[in-house]
Amino acid sequence: MHTRPSDLELLSQLARAALDLSAQRAWEQISLFDLCNASELSLDACAAAGIGKQAIADRLDHDLDLVMLKAAKGVEAGASHHDRLFEIVMARFDGLEDARPSWMSILHGDGQEPATRLARSARRLRTAAWALEACGVSTDQLMSTARILGLARRLSQVENVWMRDGGDLSKTMAALDQTLRDHADWVQRGTRLGERLSALFKRPSHRQPHADTKASEV
């Protein structure tokens, strides 16, 4: 009896096909139909699973985040926050480099349309949040918002450097090192802003509800 692949299996197969095809052709010229053909999957299976081309790109990007998080296990326990973040994020760029022709095509294609640019920006927010979590920084607090936004913007900038870099990634490493130092200053400002906002939200209100005022007058 034939068993329909799970949605995750479908995504995995399509992601592998995406890396193969994008190494040969421009990403924006590859259709979902092309990816299905290369994966020997039917288009209706993708439709049933709600899988589109952006979902495949998202899966590929998420796989790079996993490479980054796995690398976190190998960082020395006593490493500084800067060094730990550098090693973790650099592992992601090593993952990009391992499939450079494919990722050059995908990242260039993502920059062609507003919708794909927005999707890429959203993915960088996710990457930044995971990178900070891997450094022991909680990202579910109000004061973490500035950290995530700042790091995501800087990672996008370094990603652009990587696209112009050579095989030794020296420019990428230098840009990442500098941007993480700049990010540390941003974090300090963001922390102070977050503390002020948290204090503002926690401040008790001295206004009495209208209903209570009416009740006291009766």
UniProtKB/TrEMBL annotation:
It comes from the Bacteria. Gene3D superfamilies: Tetracycline Repressor, domain 2. This is COQ9 domain-containing protein. The lineage of its organism: Bacteria, Pseudomonadati, Pseudomonadota, Alphaproteobacteria, Caulobacterales.
